[in-house]
Amino acid sequence: MPEASTAVFEKDNFNAENYVKNLVQDCVGGPELQQTKQKIQALSETVSSTLKKHVYENYMQFIETAKEISHLESEMYQLSHILIEQRNLLTTLRDESMLDDQKNIIEEQSLDPNVNEEQQNRKAIQLIKDSLIGYKGNLDDKVFIHEGGLIELDSNDYRPICRIHLFLFNEVLVLAKVRNEKKLEFQTEYETKKIAVINIKDLDGVNKNAINVITSDGARMFQCINSAAKQEWIDKFEHAIKFHQLKKPKKAPAPQPPTSLKLETSQKMSTDNELLTLSPTASEMGRVIVENLPPEWLVTAPEEIQAEIAQRHFEDCLALLQKCEEHLAKDSTFHGAAEIGEKIKTLKSSLASVLMHELSNSQSRSLQAALRSSRRPLKLLVEMEKSREACGILLRVCTSAIRTSQRQARRNNLAVSELFFCDVALVASEFLRAFSAKASCTSALIVWCNMELQYFASQLIKHYLTKDTQLEMVAKVVEGVREPCLKLREIGLDLSYHMEGLLRSTLGQLLDEARYRLVDSIGRTEDPWQPYNLQTKTGLRTLLKEFDVLGIDFRAYVTGDTWINLTQATVNFCRHLLQTTESCAYLAKYDSLQRDAEILIRELFLSQHSIKPPNSLNADMTFVAKNKTYMAEVLLPIAMNRFERIAGKKPDLLLELHTQLRTVPPKPKPRSVYQTDVL
């Protein structure tokens, strides 16, 4: 009798199936086998008890470790707080030292105060052109206003990016990057009439003394050395933005209406009387001047719009912009209408850039959170006729969120297919809601769905439909894809045909590999061609219940207490064929795979049906014929019905096979009169 010890089970090459086979061969009789079973059971209980003991010990150690971690966490929090304070202090010192070292170009050169302002401007421009490396623009007709060194910050985490030197003119803003040798390398330039400046609220230790410059390339954040420098830059930017509205290059006060016309509402009657006493020509000119003045709210609207953008009151900002545009559309004959219109246009472009930046910032969140946070900027961008740009940004954000969730689902072994198509349905619903009035954007959604479907199919093939994947697993994966994909039809989106096309080649190869593998496994076990003995009544009942679930009733073939009048190979093949048929039926729901699936079932069936006993066995040919008849007359029709019920299609190849087997029944070999059937 073989010894049962834990050492046997702890070996790396231990195989339970081989161990049981050897055990059955080595044990003599049932009692000895029962004793071995009891020993194995005792070992199992001992191992279970030891495992519980170890689990308890690990649990107690875990509790102790958790307490230590709790204390350590408190200490780490205090240490983190100290480090943050130190970092803020060092950052402030570094920024101040960097900006102190970066002196202005004009201040380093002594300008002669005796010359006039125009000559000083020309000399300043020449000094700037000489100090800039790689600048090829024209500054000769510009008016120099201000310069200084700043630090550009990342708009997401306020992290310093690089040192920047700004040169502000009446028409352009020139940006130069400061190199290690304190040389200035030209970076880019912007028109002052197309930029807006926003004062950013200071946050302790994060972005003190920062301003946000809205340009045609988006928002750029800069940090000044102190609050005084910050306020000076804001004033100079406002001066430069207004400068191009004047006809003369030199800064001069805007023309004011005659003092006789600046009267309060209570003096309107006396003003009219005075105008009537004037000459007809003077009276007419006075009325023209009064009528050509813009409303006071329109004059102050640009400043209010900038304040609304800075405070993130985007709805109020857009409403004021639209009000200004409506007024300018009705009346654009007043004095300064062109300048105010240009301001409104620039501010509208700035608002659109801020909203698009707001929409892009949601890409690091989950899909649901990203869609919720995108509703506000989406609605405003659609109202501003920026639907094309907005839908492109939204779909890029959704792509990032979906692919992130797919990676997490694969790591956690979750249902990736259902998650993917639910996310696609969520994106499509939100997209159609946001752009319901913009039919031209629907094409972008269709293109996006196709691209995401291609990426999803490639990941599905890479991770779940690899070579040597079991047919049952392949069918499970495909069915998990097909059902949620069909549900997209409820929202008017049908991706089933495209999905089938993307998987067709891979699934066809997997079916071919499964066919070769399954057919090759037939006949490897030697069949004694004897009735199947289940040994016990319990074993027989268990087998009958198992096949009842599969749709096969063996009760008519039961003889005695434990016998089935079919070979064990035939009984096992019945189970194998029905399971394979079920997997193939799920794959055959795709029309392009139906023929391949039926070929697999047919060849598998014929491989088993064509097996003959060896001549040396001297088997009962009537019993052999009985097994083959059962397979052709009972098993094959059950398999065909199962296939049709799952796939929803008739298996034409299997029907043809069934017809052929019925028309050509097998002829049994004549047997000796001394032989009898085994009952």
Task: Write a short abstract of this structure.
It is built from 22 helices and eleven strands. The chain has 679 residues and is α+β, with helices and mostly antiparallel strands.
Largest beta-sheet details? 8 strands, mixed
Mean pLDDT: 80
Q: Order of strands in the sheet with the most strands?
A: 1-5-4-3-2-8-7-6
Rg from alpha-carbon coordinates: 43 Å
Percent in helix: 55-70%
Straight-line distance between termini: 35 Å
The structure class reads alpha+beta
Q: What is the β-strand count?
A: 11
Low-pLDDT stretches are 247-289, 673-679
Protein name: Exocyst component Exo84 C-terminal domain-containing protein
Keywords: Exocytosis, Protein transport, Transport
Pfam family, one: Exo84_C
Organism: Anopheles epiroticus
Describe this structure in words.
- This protein is an alpha+beta fold and 679 residues long.
- Among the domains are: 19-78, no CATH class; 134-246, Roll (PH-domain like), CATH 2.30.29; 312-437, no CATH class; 527-661, no CATH class.
- The chain has 22 helices and 11 strands.
- The strands form 2 sheets. The protein has an 8-stranded mixed β-sheet.
- Strand 3 and strand 4 (172-178) form a beta hairpin.
- Helix 12 (367-383) packs antiparallel against helix 13.
- The chain is elongated and about 130 Å long.
- The model is unreliable at 247-289 and 673-679 (pLDDT under 50).
